[in-house]
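Render this sequence as a predicted structure.
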Amino acid sequence: MLPYYDGLPVPPGYQVTSRPATGVITGGLVGLGVSYGAGLIVGATQGFKNSTGWLAAPVAGPWLAIAERNYDQCKTSTVQQARACVKSAVGEVQFITFVAVDGVFQLATGFLTLAGLLSTKQELTREDLLPKVSLVTTGPKRSDWALSVHGRF
């Protein structure tokens, strides 16, 4: 394969082929898988209760989990109740922070994957090295078919 530059003549024996940006797609899918898996683990540790079941939905799930969550209001009359309320509020802030960061990461890697799928790279490929596929019958009045691939490497 050789790089292809638009407007330049194609050398004899070569043809212009397009292929997806596999590196971008791979990076996007790995990042999306890691962030989605982290969200699933957080949802599972909370028993998928209090809207954490939304974390099973990729990309939109973290935002729905934050929006649909029930936030308890504290009514305190003692110091122990106030401490428990503060501890609960800190836990909610930590949850929201993690899920929001996870949501941003899922969005970013989702867009990265989409960009890789939509972009292609043009290259020059030797025509004589491309595999050729042919479908041939084994004989007249027979229903058997054969598929063969020919090429040199």
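Summary. Residues 73 and 81 are 12 Å apart (CA to CA). The chain has a mean pLDDT of 87.
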